[in-house]
Amino acid sequence: MKKKHLITRRTALITGITALGSYWLYRTVKAPATPTYGNILRAGDNFTYEAQRALLSKRALAKEYSRNDISSFPAVGTINPANEHNPNFSKEYSLTQRSGFFDWALSVEGSVTRPGKYSLNNLHALPARTQITRHTCEEGWTAVAEWTGVPLSQLLQHAGISAKARFVNLYAYDGYQDCIDMIDAFHPQTILAYGMNGKPLPIEHGAPLRLRVETQIGYKSMKYLKRIVVTDEYVDPGDSGWAWYTGI
Amino acid sequence: MDPLGGDYQFFASCILRRRNIDGAPAVILGRCGNDLTKPLFELPISRNYHHSGWTASHTFFDNSHSPVSAGRTYDIFNQNGWGRSLHFLNAWILVVVGTVYLSVALYTRHVHRHLLPGRRELNFRSLIWDVVHHLRNRPLFMKGPQYSLLQKLSYCVVIFLLLPTVVLTGLTMSPAVVASCPWLLTIFFGAQSARTIHFFSALFLVLFLFVHIVMVVRSGIRKQLRAMSFETGSPTR
Lengths: 248, 237
Hints:
Largest sheet of chain B: 2 strands, antiparallel
Helix content of chain B: 55-70%
Number of domains of chain A: 2
Helix content of chain A: 25-40%
Strand order of the largest sheet of chain B: 1-2
CATH class of the largest domain in chain A: Alpha Beta
Shape of chain B: elongated
Radius of gyration of chain A: 21 Å
Radius of gyration of chain B: 22 Å
CATH topology of the largest domain in chain A: Sulfite Oxidase, Chain A, domain 2
CATH topology of chain B: Fumarate Reductase Cytochrome B subunit
Oligomer: heterodimer
């Protein structure tokens, strides 16, 4: 006797294939926020981005720790762009480092009404935020440190950010460039840090100024900041091989 | 056999995730941990195990037990760019397939009828008997899902313990997810502990997968595959 089943293998297979096909159609019709490079991995990253933005709180704060929780902190990636033997050597950085960052200034450009340069003194004059947070590296390690700096939202508002702006692009002395969306840019814990564990930011951790994005993986927290450009559209730097959004 | 749709993708996921363990082959418990902190033990499995390549460390505070900072001068072996993306793509498949499977299994009472062992069935002696039977004899090709006690218990552990643990500990490593769900950090004793639990759960899943496949082969792989793909689950003969 044949029993009636709610779902048979055959209908499950057909439904699955149809669902995949519809998703592919949906993707080709709807222009993605960030490019997928025709790459299934990047399409997956984009899906994660959209799902996290849809499901998670946009203002929820990352856990903040106590001073006793501060841990040792490895510095990886570029650890000094003033080192001539480093492939990411920067002459400009080496000069400003020699001056004790006296002549250093962060350039803020793009969709802002008051573009300009912010010296360390200018940044110190803006409202500051101190937070003890966990850095999560894609390599699998974590470390806790206290960061002090200007909330990026403060700086962007000070520079008069346009209502149409959608992305904040960041450029570093060691040649790195990256960008974050406005949700992360205006997150209360997204700061431009000039202090670490109560002292000026050490060279290996990105002196004189680094970004801290506490809701993403460590590599989004760019070190050795040089220039910030606010844009209304995504500026495509090409596929670096690494996910653009790393909230996971 | 139970059609655990995740088998194939899980296998692929493990091979790829092996790349990611390479990044930091240390087993650490607690809220955080890295190359400059003391691990529980380290796995000698990667080129990155005990590499030397650090600048002289300096202390953050002026006391003898101060945490330190040091710069890494060694280019570690790192294929995590695509490894991570592929892993999370697989994670989506696991979550989607797993949710559909669980809802259908609960709705059709597959869980109650075939997976959860009955009270009378559940005793130590019949479990031992079943283990011995599995080791000595070729497992029978079952017509429809009438599982033995050992099968039921292992499927339940995988479906209701290991897979949910793997998903939740995975989410605990995500900075955006734990910002919204900080309770994840509490239940897994911190992000670094979650990573350790994640790997041990995955290890048990690999072990299950291995035994599962051996049993499929021993009970007749062609019959099993045909039944899994094309039959509606009704008795054939």
